[in-house]
Amino acid sequence: MHIVYINGGLGNQVFQYMFFYFLQRLLPDIDFFLDDNKFYGTDVPHHGYELKRIFGIEAPLLSDRFSPDVWRYMTAKRQDGLYIPEQLLREGLSLEVIREKGVKNIKFSGKINDYIPGTSLTLSPKACVYWHGYWLSEIFYNNMNDELDEILKFPPIIDDVNLNLLDAINSSRESTAIHIRRGDMVKYGWAAPMSYFSDMIRKIEKDICPSLYLLFSDDLPYCEAHAEELGLLSVARKLYLVDNNKGDDYYRDLQLMSYCNNRLSDRSSFSLLASLFCKCENKKDWNRWA
Prior knowledge:
five-stranded parallel sheet, 2 domains, 10 strands, alpha/beta, Rossmann fold
């Protein structure tokens, strides 16, 4: 049995699912489960577990292996700091953890090995393994992109506002999505400074001068209040603020971003995913790490 940790928002979930799918194809004779415990209890991130609602994915979940009362108990223990792999180890399961190299946020008293995405794997077919990581890499998608494109299909756009935006994107020259992520990027000190966006917008204007920019953000009031520092005022005449995808429809922002020729963003999983989903022939991500 192998268990793959899944958490966070839609971007994280999809990258973790792609890694899960990669492992399933690599080890077809092993039972795999997604550890979905993070989507239970009082600390559920963002919109909760979304792979089934948005993409219709029926993945094998660890929660289905336990009765509701046992799962509630495990959730309470996890919230108290006893992580799921440690709980399983203490219950007698011979389990080891393989952790994405550089990811440290797991407490486990058993054997832990680090793994670098893309390197070779040597695994015993009888091993019980818990995979802990975020796997924000294009490697797993590129190995199976045709299969994953069939699985990770967004519901068709049917509302007039998004249909009009999609028409504008398709009819524009070098349409460019600007994604300014706040929220947990700020909370954990990962958000880029405002000068990062203004510098990159100047470079984009100089090099390709798009006819349309679309601004996506989980904090549009912040963007409007700091429009000058972010460089948004310099392209205001061709900038559209996308503010119609709220609540359960938030994922439409990701869908629209994937149709743009270019993307400028923080290094958020949401933006990285939009880049992978983009099928534009000459797509480009205008980021300092790209």
